[in-house]
Each structure stands twice: as structure tokens, then as C-alpha cells.
Amino acid sequence: MNDSSWGAPPQAGSHTGYWGPSDQGPVQGAAPAGPAYDAPEAQQTRPMPIVPDVPAYGGNQDDDRGAARLSGPLFRNETPQAQPYGSYDTPQAQPYGAVPQNPEPMPDAPQPAPAPQKKSAGRDLSAAIGVGVGLGAVIVASLFIVKAVFVGVVAVAVVVGLWELTSRLAERKGIKAPVVPLAIGGAAMVVSGYARGAEGAWVAMALTALAVLVWRMTEPPEGYLKDVTAGVFAAFYVPFLATFVAMMLTADDGPWRVLTFLVLTVVSDTGAYAVGWRFGKHKLAPRISPGKTREGLLGAVTFAMVAGALCAEFLIDDGTWWQGLLLGLAVAVSATLGDLGESMIKRDLGIKDMGTLLPGHGGIMDRLDSLLPTAPVVWLLLVIFVGSG
User: Fold this and answer.
1) If we measure between CA atoms, which residue out of 311, 193, 309 comes closest to residue 249?
2) CA–CA separation, 54 vs 56, rounded Å?
3) Are 347 and 150 in contact (CB under 8 A)?
4) Which of 160, 166, 198, 380 is the most buried (most CB within 10 A)?
5) Are 184 and 219 in contact (CB under 8 A)?
6) What is the DSSP secondary structure assignment for residue 237, as one 8-state letter?
């Protein structure tokens, strides 16, 4: 066969193509039918190989003769089968041992939607309610039976609160505020406010600050400034503000004034919690207290104003409902600011609660946070509205 015979029909008796012999039958001694490699003109003939994309399993691409590997039907009369629509297999026959590749990954099974989580109060409500009711019973009993006993309860709460605050400062910041002069001066401040009024409270505050400065001199000077600064702050923040509760008690309707102060503060906190937990969506101060919302503040104002109008009308001598509205508004604002102020302190210290004395509440300071800054506000407004007597 010459160079021009590519594509020409095979001659009679020729077996150089893929197809069978002519009608005359096979020729004796001729090579079997198959690819034309061993015919004399094989080097001149261009076979029609189908080169696979994936080499045959175990194949050697560099065989002794350097010939290209052929792929295609194993038998002469074998034709590629039609592939179903959407099949991932190619029409060409795959070599033995090749793993079919899936060009498109199977879609993941749909995952069930997570079940909605219920809002959590973050504390043991049963323990919190039980402790709150118990404390309220002790306070009310001491308030209306013997005033001096109630003053003693306030003094004890002040001392415990000072101990919690100074302990956390020492643990978290290494600040060693003098505890002994603070505890003695704090109790004296509350008693002086009840016995001598605002003048006695200011004098006791000044003497307590001086005692803190002198007491700290008995230790090395390193850290003196930060220790005495923290001591004076603690004296003002806890016992001095609590003194205004004792000063309210000195009026003729003193027990009712103190009860109004306690009721409005508790109602404000309860309204903020209830409304904020149910409807709260917009954060009030996310960097300080992420749990507080603007809706909660609105609930605190609403609840406190309603309670203030009722208390001023029925509990305070010569009080009127509109005075109670203003009183409730002021209490809601001061209680919220007090809560945020202590939250700022706890964030700086890196703690959640000031103590663990009260189950469900934390420590004493965690209950005094909104009461302490509210006491001077209520005392001042009641003096303006109905006098100090």
C-alpha cells in the first residue's frame, strides 16, 4: 500500500483494516485481522486511535516499540452504546480499572431547622423570689416596729457591701483599700445621718476619709495613691449614699417615705425586667450592660410613675398624685443609672456578681446598686414636695 492509499477501500484479500476480509475469504498464511502494525506497510499507515483521557490501569506509556496506546471497542463489531440523558459517563469506553469521575457533587441533604430557644432570665428565679421576699419581710418588720433596728439593718448591709467591694478590688486589680476604717466609718456615717441629719453625715464622711489616709500609712508607700483613692470612693459610694435612707426615716412619716423609696425602686427594676424580657429589641447600653433595652427603660418609667402616683396619694402625708408621677420618673432614671454604674465597675473588674451571699441575686452590692443612687434623689424630692418634717 502506498502513501495515497489512506482512506481508500481495502483491496481483495487485504487484511490491513479494521473490518473483515473480502468475499473471497481469508488467505492462507495471512496475519489475523486486527490493527495494521505488523504489515510491511504498517509504518506508512495512519491508524485511527481513540486516545483516552485517563490512561489504562497498569499501562506503560513507554513500551519497547514506542507505539501509541490504542483504545476503543475490544471487538470489531462492537459499537458504543447510547448513553441515557443526563448520564455523567462519556460516550467513549472507559479503560479497565478507571474510576468514573462525577463532575457535579451530590447536593447535601437538607438539615432540619434548629428549634427556637426560649428566653432565659439568667438567674434562679425561684431562689431570687424567695430571698427577696425574706429580705422584704425583715426590712418591713424592722421599719415599722423599731426604727433603730432598721438603722442597724442598714448599717450591716453597708458593712457587708464594703467588704464585697474591697475584696473584689483586691482580687481583680490588686487595690488594697483599708477595710477596717471603712467598715467603722461606714456604720458611723449611717448612725450619724439618723441622729444628726445631713450635717452629721458629712462630718462622718470627712472623718472616714481621713482615717483611710492615715491607716494606709502603716504599709509601704507603693500603691498608696490608688489604695486611698479607692478607699475614699468606697466610703462615698456605699455608706454615704445609704445615709440618706436613714435621714428619710427621721420624718414623722419616715417609715412610709422609706417604704415608698423601696417600693418605687423595686417596681422600676421589675418593670424594666418584665418589659425588656418580653419586648426588648433595642439595646440601651450594649457596651456596659447588654441585657438592658430601651423598651425595658420605658417599662421601668411606666411602672414607677404609676406606683409613684399611688404612693404619693395614699402613703405620703400631704402628697399628691402628680408629685408621685415626677417622683416615679426620677426613681426610674436614677435606678437605671445606678445599675449601669455598678455594671461598669463589674465589667472593669471582669466579674459577673460582686458576691454570692444572696442566692439568685449575687451579693449585697448587687441589690444595692440601684438603691444607693436613688436614696438621695427620693430624699431631696420629698423634702421639696412635702418638707423634711
Assistant:
1) 193
2) 7
3) no
4) 166
5) no
6) I
Amino acid sitting at position 84? P
Q: Rounded to 5 degrees, what are φ and ψ at 292?
A: -90, 140
**Cα within 13 Å of Cα(220), Cβ side:** 2
Is the pTM higher than 0.70? The answer reads: no
d(CA 324, CA 331): 10
Question: Mean pLDDT throughout 22-38?
Answer: 45
Q: Which amino acid is at 238?
A: V
268/256 Cα distance (integer angstroms) = 18
**CA torsion, points 352, 367, 274, 245, in degrees to nearest 10?**
-150
Q: What are the pLDDT digits (tens) for 256-313?
A: 999 999 999 999 999 999 999 999 999 999 999 988 999 999 999 999 999 999 999 9
Amino acid (1-letter code) at residue 243: T
3-state DSSP call for residue 291?
strand
Q: Which of 305, 250, 369 is nearest to 258 (CA)?
A: 250
Class of residue 38 by CB neighbours under 10 A (exposed 0-12, middle 13-18, buried 19+) = exposed
Round to whole Å and give the CA distance between 169 and 131. Answer: 26
Do residues 359 and 316 make contact, with C-beta atoms less than 8 angstroms apart? no
Q: How far is CA 91 from the centre of its chain?
A: 57
pLDDT band at 59 (very low <50, low <70, confident <90, very high): very low
Q: Could you read off the pLDDT of 121-157 as tens digits, one per residue?
A: 555 667 667 777 877 788 888 898 888 999 999 999 9
List the Cα angle 242/248/252 in 5-degree steps: 160
> Mind giving me the DSSP string for 141-162?
HHHHH-HHHHHHHHHHHHHHHH
Q: How far apart, in whole angstroms, are the C-alpha atoms of residue 239 and residue 249?
A: 16
- The residue with cell 467513549 is 92
C-alpha to C-alpha distance for 120 and 20, rounded to whole angstroms: 85
DSSP 10-46: PPTT---SSS---TT-PPTTPPPSS-SSSSTTGGG--
C-alpha cell at 93: 469506553
Give which of 124, 373, 389, 122 is closest to 237, Cα–Cα.
373
C-alpha–C-alpha distance, residues 107 and 99, integer Å: 21
Closest CA to 233 of 218, 212, 217, 216: 212
